[in-house]
Design goal:
Radius of gyration: 21 Å
Distance between the termini: 15 Å
Strand content: 15-25%
CATH architecture of the largest domain: 3-Layer(aba) Sandwich
CATH topology of the largest domain: Rossmann fold
Order of helices and strands: EHEEHEEHHEHEEHEHEHEHEHEHHH
Number of domains: 2
Shape: globular
CATH class of the largest domain: Alpha Beta
Strand order of the largest sheet: 3-2-1-4-5-6-7
CATH superfamily of the largest domain: Glycogen Phosphorylase B
Structural class: alpha/beta
Helix content: 40-55%
Length: 369
């Protein structure tokens, strides 16, 4: 059987969450199933999967979310004559009619359509893009033969919005990447850490406002924010400047090695997001033995558990401050809890499990033509 993979987003340096998902999942799958032939549709020839004998690369230098993705990409894929295509995101051409499975990481478009790059443009452009995106999403879910989702929360969400597609859903979870076991420190000061994007639903505005108070409570601490410096992150930087905040550092994007060091060295990791499909950054932090302060929104409470974590109500600045104080005031105990949680989380969330369940999705898709 010949499996096609839309790997244009592959690599954490491109789209950290989805890019990591593609790379880690397929690095695992192609080794587990050397009997299968994989065709990787990539923007570059030299990618993470080229070293495997059962992988062929087809160049598809097509940007995501644009008209060329709708028109050109289906033709490129069809020429490769794959038996089954895996699209790891909802951006499937409405003109693609051959068998495929789909991964839905979340239904952010249904809940918070303002929280995407399209919202940086004018109102008309923003509205047209949102309508187009929803059309593509709806068609992809309806036409897919199987739908992989990372959590119970996303499964329930897909069932709610698309009840007729409920039998296609397979919960595959996601894995934790081994970022290393680091003893070195990135900075010579103590700090709280956030890593991720600055899209509005991530609620970095709440974190920055909370830091105004936390910086006074903990004059020896700093706040380190990791994430792409796009228009949304620039707005957060402007907010920090307007509030005249001190000891706040915006590092931009960092390598996996540096991210691992930042996780391990942080006093705690803060995750203020009000909507997630899975929530990999706090999971990574906790898996490296760093306590987490997180919103109590699902799926975070399902995913992280109770060891080494203190939750607060989404959008509640004072709740966040109290949660941080609860960790800092009991830091040694919280670190010990986080180390215990690390063992459990790494056992439960690994890419081999995700690969095995994804292969079941392939079988389901082939059998249910």
């Amino acid at each position: 059987m010949k499996i096609g993979i839309d790997a244009r987003m592959m690599g954490a340096e491109n789209t950290r969450g989805i890019g990591r998902y593609i790379q880690e999942l397929y690095t695992t799958i192609v080794q587990m199933r050397p009997d299968l032939e994989f065709v990787v549709f990539s923007k570059i020839r030299n990618h993470a999967l080229v070293k495997f004998d059962n992988v062929k690369t087809v160049i598809a230098n097509v940007n995501w979310y644009g008209w060329q993705e709708q028109i050109r990409l289906p033709k490129i894929i069809q020429q490769a004559k794959v038996d089954l295509m895996h699209f790891p995101h909802w951006n499937v051409s409405i003109f693609y009619n051959d068998p495929f499975i789909l991964t839905i990481h979340d239904l952010l478009l249904k809940h918070k359509h303002y929280s995407a790059k399209a919202s940086t443009r004018c109102f008309l452009s923003r509205s047209l893009k949102r309508i187009g995106y929803e059309l593509v999403l709806n068609q992809a879910i309806k036409k897919a033969r199987a739908i992989c989702v990372p959590s119970d929360f996303v499964a329930e969400d897909v069932k709610y919005f698309f009840p007729k597609q409920r039998n296609k859903i397979i919960i595959t979870s996601e894995g934790i990447v081994d970022l290393g076991d680091y003893s070195e420190r990135k900075f010579d000061f103590k700090y709280f850490l956030y890593a991720g994007s600055a899209y509005p639903h991530k609620r970095l505005d709440v974190l920055v406002h909370a830091w105004k108070d936390l910086a006074k409570i903990y004059p020896e601490k700093h706040l380190v924010i990791v994430g792409e410096i796009d228009l949304f992150m620039e707005k957060i930087k402007e907010l920090a400047n307007t509030l005249k905040l001190e000891r706040i550092h915006f590092l931009g994007s960092v390598s996996d090695k540096d991210l691992g060091i930042l996780y391990v060295s942080a006093d705690l990791f803060i995750f203020p997001s009000e909507f997630e499909g899975f929530g990999l950054p706090p999971l990574e932090a906790l898996s490296m033995g760093t306590p987490v302060v997180s919103t109590n929104e699902r799926p975070m409470s399902d995913l992280l558990g109770d060891l080494g974590v203190v939750y607060f109500k989404s959008g509640d600045k004072n709740g966040m401050i109290e949660a941080v104080k609860a960790v800092v005031d009991n830091l040694e105990s919280m670190r010990n809890q986080a180390k215990k949680a690390s063992v459990l989380l790494r056992d439960k969330n690994n890419w081999k499990n995700t690969a095995t369940l994804t292969l079941k999705a392939y079988d389901y898709a082939i059998k249910n033509k």
